[in-house]
Specification:
The structure is a homodimer.
Chain A lengths: L2 H12 L1 H18 L5 H13 L37 E2 L2 H23 L4 E7 L3 H17 L2 E7 L5 H13 L5 E4 L9 H6 L12 H8 L10 H12 L8 E5 L6 H10 L3 E5 L6 H5 L4 E4 L17 E4 L3 E4 L7 E4 L4 H4 L5 E2 L6 H21 L10
Parallel strand pairs in A: 1-11, 2-3, 2-4, 5-6, 5-7, 7-8, 8-11
Antiparallel strand pairs in A: 9-10
Helix pairs in contact in A: 1-2, 2-4, 3-4, 4-13, 5-13, 9-10, 9-13
């Protein structure tokens, strides 16, 4: 049975909200190109639906222990006992991303009508890494689809660090640019921290600035930007109605791009978080105890079926290029999770591709839009994502 | 058998380095008041000893998974099998603190001789909380003992938020002040974040500024200050020769004062960290799997013996006031850990009082000294603490 078929079957059998989601998402995709559709009404529907799921901040719980934790009853196993392949929900990340992109396109249209400007995203690409070029292509295509202006500065791999900093500085000074991202990784001879530090705090749509990271870590504060992959993981969990409060979530990987911000964001939602990494000596013992496993290790098929407990929720952030002569680009992307094994154990799982990836790009567009809203003092009725 | 007796017994029986530590610490205590003692030689001895234990930054490990983690062999259980009460090491925090304070006193003396100035710490105390008054007394006494100048601004509990901010601002402008701390908690009618934000980044000796927190979270960066209790926990572990790389450490509590910075600092040492808190539904299941448990929940006797695996290392940061009419202040402090139960299971444990507390105050002095060194461009041979 194909993944898509399983997704539809699961959606209709177990999660009516998902079938609604699929329906609305198809309408969203149509709406992106169908000017005859009543966009306002669709947007209102989305805002109503999103407002029931997306929240960045829970209440700032005092750090005292409640000896009778009535506030947090023990959650049932996400998928209950006896989960089998047929009842596993495969999250359709493309559909969730389309839904978000529709909302963004609508707000960009409102912004253009109200203030005469659209958001602008600048991308700095250094060198000719095949995977980096693909990611940048996806991001620029994403901008075009929602009406965000995109600018690309391409530099050769043998350019100097100062030339990259100069590109960033020019974008900092450009009022039509509201978000700047430097595609990582940079060539080894460059000081990544120095280059990222050159990005203005208020254009740091990747959320890597230490002040944004610190404000994400401190529950009593709020960052200007949350890294896109972390927002994508949370959005997928919230859209799938996965309870987070009190749940044991294991995050595999601790990079500033995914693992670190995801572990911090999960704690804001009152999850119990374990962070495992290359030096962890018993990763499977910890994942086997977890209600939710989020993998961003960057190793294909690292997470096997026997790493998971029955009914676990699995979010696979891995995008590992595998040689594939049959692909247009000579390679294809595979996740950190051995999907064929995990899908027989998990209650909910994201595929690769078509899971976290498209939502991550949508979150980049959302961060760029949020930045432009701040720059123009432009507010909409919409709910903040995640 | 009393805790102190067990400590000495353990020190002589199992940890020769500890008996050396006890010896040197007694010498240190003497040295603080004994000008006839060869201070330079003692300081050199301490620097040699510390240099084998204290490190803030490990190498910045790329966040890729090593399928054959030869770099991190599975660590043996800290205390081995069959740990019994008699073989449990009770860490003497006062002795470790005395050692650090001796080193600080020596460096303050060198600074005074070299630049004619000493470090200055300013404390802002609002209201008349009994426990806050005690903590401030300890901190000021600690300054006096090592030659750091202390300033105290006491404000009534019914003062305005602006009056507190004004006090902080005056200290910001005072070049003789290198560290400012606002004793928490503040009265409920005050915006804690606004007041803490008023502290200059370069005088933030408590390490609560979001930029310091972000730089602590990002392994490729380095904060100006690390919160004192987190540094104290790491110093006690490193001084006790506890391996951290790959170990499973559970941190109980997620406050910005202890839990959050400790979990971030442990990750810099490549520990596998789980953070549990008031909403965690199965805390004991996670602690029972942990090589090291660090508790900062603020609940007396929360951690029972059956929460721990045999040979676990237990660091108790809890300082919970318990009514005690026989005490001078009408109360005494007790930890989060049920000591009498835990001491029969753990291989290493800190007592309360006399464990993390004195080292935390020593770290405040160390942060103040580091700040003054930066302000005066003054360097010594000494090893940075933790």
């Amino acid at each position: 049975m194909s993944g898509a078929a399983v997704a539809l079957l699961a959606a209709t059998r177990r999660r009516p909200t998902t079938s609604l989601s699929l329906f609305l998402s198809r309408a969203a995709r149509a709406g992106l190109h169908d000017s005859a559709a009543p966009a306002e009404e669709k947007a209102r529907t989305r805002r109503r639906r999103r407002s029931s799921t997306s929240r960045l901040l829970g209440p700032d719980i005092p750090d005292a222990w409640d000896p009778l934790p009535r506030a947090a009853p023990r959650p049932p196993p996400p998928g209950g006992a006896g989960v089998d392949y047929g009842s596993t929900t495969i999250i359709d990340g493309k559909s969730v991303a389309d839904d978000i992109r529709f909302q963004i396109a609508e707000e960009v249209r409102q912004m253009k009508n109200a203030v005469g400007n659209v958001p602008g995203l600048a991308v700095v690409l250094v060198g000719d890494r095949r995977d980096s070029q693909s990611y940048v292509r996806y991001k620029i295509k994403g901008c075009e689809d929602v009406g965000i202006k995109s600018l690309l500065a391409e530099l050769p791999g043998n350019c100097t660090e100062d030339e990259v900093v100069d590109s960033v500085s020019r974008f900092n000074e450009d009022p039509s640019v509201h978000g700047i991202l430097v595609q990582l990784p940079l060539p080894h001879h460059m000081d990544e921290e120095r280059i990222l530090s050159a990005i203005s705090l208020d254009k740091d749509v990747d959320g890597f600035h230490p002040l944004n990271v610190g404000n994400l870590a401190l529950r009593s504060r709020k960052p200007l930007f949350v890294p896109c992959a972390a927002k994508a993981c949370l959005e997928l969990l919230l859209q799938s109605r996965i309870e987070l409060m009190g749940k044991h979530v294991t995050v595999i990987g601790r990079s500033k791009v995914v693992g670190l911000p995801t572990s911090l964001l999960l704690q804001r939602h009152h999850a119990t978080v374990s962070i495992i990494h290359a030096f962890t000596t018993n990763p499977e013992e910890i994942t086997q105890q977890s209600d939710i496993v989020i993998s961003a290790a960057g190793v294909a098929n690292l997470v096997r079926g026997n790493w998971l407990k029955k009914g676990a929720v699995v979010i696979d952030v891995g995008t590992n290029p595998i040689e594939d002569p049959t692909s247009d680009y000579g390679y294809r992307l595979t996740g950190d999770v051995c999907f064929e094994e995990a899908v027989r154990v998990a209650s909910v799982i994201t595929p690769v591709p078509g899971g976290v990836g498209p939502v991550t790009i949508a979150m980049l567009l959302a961060n760029t839009l949020d930045s432009a809203k701040r720059a123009y003092g432009f507010a909409t009725e919409s709910q903040e994502l995640v």
